[in-house]
Amino acid sequence: MAVSTSEDVEKSREVFAAFDRDDSGTIETQQLGAALQLLGLHTTLEELFATVSQVDRQVTGVLDFNEFLKVVDKARAASVVYTNEASTLEAFAALGGKADKTGTIPLERLAGAIKEFDLAVDMTPVLAKLNTPNAELDYNGFKALLGE
């Protein structure tokens, strides 16, 4: 996912400039977490290390603005994945599963919710199991059904 709007690029430029205190055109990789937080992006230390290792190939410990934009892009993409995961988990819990990804959803309840909200979900695998008494779906099955 790219920094898609000129507003995103301008905001990224402002944050970058705030951390480029010596006007060298670079920021230190240690400053990335704080810079990303100013952009409203939150990453784990592991994600940050992985991204920096992909972007700072010469291992200089500093990033120029274009490299910084690559980090921002990756953080935005990770944020979208996290948001999707959180939404999936929220739906799972609302249907009877547990927020820690344990438990199961009764397939009858799931089929009813899909029909009630007119969701575009392929019910074929679910309907095949509905003939089984007390059929249920765990979190991984629910996530797979949603195509995630």
Automatic annotation (TrEMBL):
InterPro entries: CALM/Myosin/TropC-like (IPR050230), EF-hand-dom_pair (IPR011992), EF_hand_dom (IPR002048). Pfam families: EF-hand_7. This is EF-hand domain-containing protein. Keywords: Repeat. It comes from the Eukaryota. GO terms for molecular function: calcium ion binding. PROSITE patterns: EF_HAND_2. The keyword Repeat applies. The keyword Repeat applies. Residues 7-42 form the EF-hand domain. GO terms for cellular component: myosin II complex.
